[in-house]
Amino acid sequence: MSVNPLQGIPRCDHTKLRRSQRAFRMTVTLLLVLTAAWWFSESYLRYDHSETQYRMALTLQRAQARPILRTVVERESKEKDTPSALYLEALAEVEEAEKLLPAYARAYQSNPKSESLLINYGCHLYEMGQYGEARERFREAGINPPRNLLPRYLESAALLASSEGKEERSNALALIARANASGDPLLVPEPLWHDSLPRHGKGYLHKYYMTADRIFETIHNSALLFCAALDREATQENAAELNSHLEKIEAMSMRLLGMNKGDSPPALRQLEHALQIQLAVHQQRGRLADNFGLPAEPEYAERSQKLLNLLKELDQFNASGDALAQKYARRLLIPFVLILESVVLFTLFYFALLLLRRFLKPCTHLPFLPVTGTGKKLLFTGFTALFLLLLLMPALYSTNREYVWEYPMQLLGEILCVGLLLFFGIYYPLSTLRAFLKDARRHELQEAWVEQKRLQLSIFSCLALRYAGFLLGGLIICVCLWLNFTRIFYSAYPFQSALLPSGLEADIGALVNSIKDQLKNF
Question: pTM of the entire structure?
Answer without folding.
Answer: 0.84
